[in-house]
Amino acid sequence: MSIQKDIQELLKAEVISKEVASKIEVYYKSKSSSSSNKQFIAFGILGAMLVGLGIILIIAHNWDELSRPVKTIFAFLPLIVGQIASGYTLLKKDDSVAWREGSTTFLFFAVGSSISLVSQIYNIPGELDSFLLLWMLLCLPLIYVMRSSIASLLYLIGITYYACEVSYWAHPTQESYLYWLLLALALPHYYLLYKNKPNSNFMFFHHWFIPLSVIITLGVVADTKEELMFAAYFSLFGLFSLVGNTSFFTQQKLMRNGYTILGSLGTVFMLLMLSFSWFWDEIRDEPYPLNEMVFSAEFVTTLILTILASGLLYWQYKKNGLKALQPTSVVFLLFILTFIIGFFSVAAVVLINLIILAMGILIIREGARQNHLGVLNYGLLIITALVVCRFFDTDISFVVRGIMFVSVGFGFFGSNYWMLKKRKANG
Amino acid sequence: MDKKKIILIVFGVVVLAQLFIPAKMIWDKEDVLETGTEYKFRTAPVDPNDPFRGKYITLSFNEDVFIVNDENSWERGEPVYVSLTTDSLGFAKIESVTKVPPTTHQEFVKATVGYVPGNGSRNVTIDYPFERFYMEESKAPAAEEVYRDSQLDSIKPTWALVSVKNGEAVLKDVLIDGVSIREVVKNNRENIE
């Protein structure tokens, strides 16, 4: 190990004392053992996952030459192996994360393969959604009993798949309100992770999986007043931006902050979509009886999300002042105003374009302030996207569009050059 | 009682539930197979697939429409009870469809309303709970072809053999002219080779 040589050298040169030298050695030893432990966990999970999925695939072949009793044995075999492994882990290897996560992963897939094989043997039609629901419910307790984050992540994938199956892909579709209950049942584990291992990799995955699952599934409440869902999604993305802006997240690397990234990208994406006039033409043409709207699920969802986001916004504003707020985290309030204006006036689409422009500029400014090229260029990309969208609007003159492109291009060169120069000057 | 013990007890309960659910599924189905009444439903198979459970053929049944008095009182997806009888050739026939389980001794199947036309034709379609027949992955597409070919020369009857008991139904086999479709596919393959 090269560090050993360095330590010897530093000892000889009397830069560090013997005591410090031994401390350094102990530190590096413990560090390398924890990283090899991490690898062991990762490979344990990956191995169990591959074997589990492989078993499901092999079973899906439908071995119709095998007799019913033989098939029945195979339905229970992986399940029992997984249960024994998990039981052994609980009794003997309770402290080993690798054992807990690995055996739970295998058991998770074994439960699925067992139900699916029984369905095949008896030709049980049960649509995919009821199959997934049963599977997830049977595996939900594993999250807590085995204290397994992988079970939690797989469960999140499973319930999201379930909600999509019920509400987006099935005919006829239904609203899967059950999803929210299922999600709530997984949240205590998230909280425990936050309490006990706030910087673990599992926490990192949860920071992405939970907001993603909610983003995918929020659309299930859409029924006849779909237009309102835009407001609901804006408030959701605003809420995520604000959650990502809490002190717990701002201390971490941006990559770990799924809330900020998804909240910001979502807001920008939605704004760009609504910067075209089709949406606004549509809501002006359609009659919207107020009483019908107020009692729709879409309205209630929007209301709840907006209240949550506004509350968090107010709290952060009180605590840290206006400067600490992200530009993306106030868009949802502006959108609601614009949305109301949109019922009466064509000005709404102009307002949306102005909001995007303002957001782009504020993000560029933020990037300059933080001396962060990534953030700066993200702001520029937002403006570029806006300009590209307008490229397709035929009712703007070619000259104006040309000037817009040229100026944004110069903006890219100029700001990056300025930033790099500033960095050089600083050291 | 310490925490460890509680966790182990809960784990035990979870293990039992995970074993119990598939076992109960098997038990219920075996009961219908053992003691249920067999019906032959005329059918036509097509082949889709399921990401977890593999290939199957979907059966579309000839006897899946009944005439109602008032279309508006039937809703897609609502559970219905189909009382069964047999026609002169021995194939299953719908005797009546009700919204509550029949109290007579006649056999019935619990099904759901599939399609309500809404154009005044009063023909309501039923979705039976035995529309999937899982097959080995290479055989499922072949099964559809075999069926199609069997309809070309002289129309051979194709039917699903279903065991029925107290509203529950288990699909036993799909047969073309009295031979299991699995066998037909297998024989076909051997003939080609």
Describe the structure.
The complex is a heterodimer of chains A (427) and B (193). Helices cover 80% and strands 0% of the residues of chain A. Chain A is built from 18 helices and no strands. In chain A, α1 packs antiparallel against α2 and α17 packs antiparallel against α18. The mean pLDDT of chain A is 85. Chain B is an alpha+beta fold and 193 residues long. Chain B is globular. Chain B has two domains: 35 residues; 157 residues, no CATH class. The N and C termini of chain B lie far apart (68 Å). In chain B, α2 crosses α3. Chain B is built from three helices and twelve strands, in the order αβββββββββαβββα. The longest helix of chain B is centred in the first third of the chain and has 33 residues. At the A-B interface, α2, α3, α4 and α5 of A face α1, β3 and β9 of B.
Features:
heterodimer; A: 427 residues; mainly alpha; 18 helices; 0% strand; flat; B: 193 residues; 2 domains; globular
Query: What is the β-strand count of chain B?
Result: 12
Task: Give the overall shape of chain B, derived from the CA principal axes.
Answer: globular
Binned, the helix content of chain B reads: 25-40%
Rg value of chain B: 20 Å
Gyration radius of chain A (Cα, Å) is: 27 Å
Distance between the termini of chain B: 68 Å
Helix and strand arrangement:
The complex is a heterodimer of chains A (427) and B (193).
Chain A (H helix, E strand, L loop, with lengths): L1 H11 L5 H43 L7 H25 L4 H25 L6 H18 L3 H21 L8 H19 L4 H18 L8 H18 L2 H4 L7 H17 L3 H8 L4 H5 L2 H24 L10 H12 L4 H24 L2 H19 L6 H29 L1
Helix pairs in contact in A: 1-2, 2-4, 3-4, 4-5, 4-6, 5-6, 6-7, 6-8, 7-8, 9-11, 9-14, 9-15, 11-16, 15-16, 16-17, 17-18
Chain B lengths: L2 H33 L1 E10 L2 E2 L3 E8 L3 E3 L11 E8 L5 E7 L9 E8 L7 E5 L4 E3 L4 H12 L7 E8 L2 E9 L2 E2 H12 L1
Helix pairs in contact in B: 2-3
